[in-house]
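In response to reviewer comment 3 from the previous cycle, which asked for concrete evidence that the modeling workflow produces usable outputs, we include below a single protein chain processed end to end. The sequence was submitted unchanged, and the resulting structure tokens are shown without manual editing.
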Amino acid sequence: MAETDRVRPQGESTRADALKNREHILRVARDAFAADGAVSLNTIAKQAGVGPGTLYRHFPTREALILAVYQQEVFRVADEVPKLLAEHPPLEAFRRWFHTLAAYVRIKHGLGDALHTAAAQAVVNQVYAPIVGAVGQLLRACAEDGSLRPDLDPDDVLMLMSFLWRVGTDASGTAQADRLMELAITGLRP
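The workflow returned the following structure tokens.
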């Protein structure tokens, strides 16, 4: 057999290319799902400039793709805390971060049946600890500057703030979220 007839073992560059493709598909899928929750996987593959086989190799089911998008976005919002705290006073960072989290969690509510499976529960469990950790960072910063009480439990505050992803996305829902945010903050102050 000639050297060119042999199958090359997957090397580092192949893995890097695969990872790059996966990340690109996730970016395209995130935007596609945000625009139309019923978008087909073939449409996503076309928009990503990859063949359906490439998409299905990375994400064998629609659920797998949806959950990967959700997980990536929630991890991204958890990682934003240090940047927000560097750019804003702690209480303003708290407000901004929870509004951003709510925007990402709303994607979750649009996932329908995909979030009622064991795979979905596994993803939700994976993102919970980083989110609670991010809430804890925000609470510590707010306690240090005296804007919120120092005895707040991150799990409790996350549960309390969950109203943000339950209000409507229209103007009245946004206004209600802002009012409820201020009510919650009043209860969290020293």
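The chain has a mean pLDDT of 86. We consider this sufficient to address the reviewer's concern, and the full set will be provided in the supplementary archive.
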